[in-house]
Amino acid sequence: MATIRCTTAQAIVRYLSQQFTEVDGKRVPLFPGVYGIFGHGNVTCLGEALEAVQDTLPTWRGQNEQSMGFAAVGFAKAMVRRQIMVVTASIGPGTTNLLTAAGVAHTSRLPMLMICGDSFARRHPDPVMQQVEHFSNPTQTVNDAFKSVTRYWDRITWPEQILSSLPQAVATMLDPGECGPAFIGVCQDVQEMAWDYPEAFFQPRLHSMPRPRPDRLVLAQAVERLKQAKRPLIISGGGVRYSQAEAVLEEFALAHGIPVVETIAGKGAFTHDHPAHMGPIGILGSTSANELAAHADVILAVGTRLMDFVTGSWTVFDHKAQFIALNAARFDAHKHFSLPLVCDAREGLSELHTALGEWEADAAWLERGRKAFAGWNALIAGQQERTTGNDDPTYAQVVGVVNAQAAPEDYIISAAGGLPGELVKGWRVKNSGTFDCEFGFSCMGYELSAGWGVAMTEQDRDVFVMIGDGTYMMMNSDIYSSVLSGHKFILLVCDNGGFAVINRLQNAKGGASFNNLLKDCRVKEPFHVDFVANAQSMGARARKVTSLNELEEAIQWAKGNDRTTVICISTHPYSWTPGDAWWDVGVPEVSARESVNEARAAHVEGRKKQRLGL
Fold this sequence. Notes:
Helices cover 37% and strands 18% of the residues. The strands form five sheets. Strands 5-4-6-7-9-8 form a six-stranded parallel sheet, sandwiched between helices. α1 (8-17) packs parallel to α2 (46-52), α10 packs parallel to α14 and α16 packs across α17. The chain has 614 residues and is of the alpha/beta class.
């Protein structure tokens, strides 16, 4: 057997460089790039290997390991899991910085390959710098922490182990039901070791994501359940987008007269004005979608894990409603005693469509949804309408302006704080696949770095990122990364003086405003950061605006700029678009505050409406 002698690190890089996939009919690298911050755990061996292939597998240096992970997740979502970025960090703190990003990828079922250093397999120099010692288990390192936030995990202690480990990692990340982040820790001394690898291991491989078909018996049961429905409803989740099943779902919904509501991850599969689209469902949802959910008797949940913000902590549905869960993941398909249709969204919907034949739901049901959605649109228009006066604009008004100025193909990103609610409710999607609200992990800091990652997909569009001042302060260094690498995005910073949306929740459950808005924190004197100066110091264009008219002008200016541009606007800390669904959070059973006791009593009543898993 022909062999190639190289180090373990060189073999890893060589293997990754030979993996390919197809995107829109073109053969492209499965791993188009690497985000890397080097330290002693990866620079001398893995860094040496990456330098040698930088023209075919480019390495991009970030400023923080966590933010590099966020960029990789944003890239994977924009590419609907068809390409995967690699992230490499050293050992110790550099590696643990990736944990939060791995949590985002794991929760949202998105691929990311992390390759990090580890302690010495031989243990001769132990304890090495940044090694955490466990007295009863010398094999345990900080890398073991990734087991809870990865779909595939391995530690390489011999050079030949990558022959099985790397293909398994790739298979996991490409599996539609198991998809998620993979972590491979490579002991520092093993990275340097040379071994005679089979030449066949490095042959080019073309990968595709499998599309499992539904079980025939379960498909027949799903058809029977739908045909018996009087008020069927489709919930479109993120899996619809990852399967690229938008067109099939549109055809299915219109042919059978079934209204469609969207989850947070699923928003963007349909355009806002599609005749079957009835708005977002749940806590960040619309009155129209939640009204339909309350009266639906059969719910076809496609590609959704049914998180609490979708289900209103399981209060938005009739307790007698029956579920059909069409999902590539077995775990998700079996929730709440659903009829589990375990399959790819596109293929499952196609077969379900054929099996239903000419059957259609009562036309009055779809018309009821359209009337409710018209009412919701009127409510949103009122929230976004410009008003006279001296108050700062609301989030809803700012979202309305940005939405109006954005081109149909432009991409919008949010994740945490008050903006996800306003964007999910008020952003009118003009083109499919242009909306990213990371709310599975709802991770502050994801947004800005994801903007860098999405810009790397190099599509002809502007990437908008909308964040609050609190998120900006948590993680902003990829403004600098994006300017350095030449990947432009437009950042809107809405400054409302702190963590305003959590202050809202705090007040709603009877609590006093405390430690959220700057004015309610233990500080000498609250003051606002000069975000324009900060962004300019990192090479970005930046401008502060004081009105919605100025915001309009600034967005057009930003679209014409050649680099990342930051626009800052002060926004109202207390004005929000009304919520429509209940949310289960912890409320103190006893308190010295009467307002908390009142909130507790109301919350207990809310829990009585919950559907308990049946």
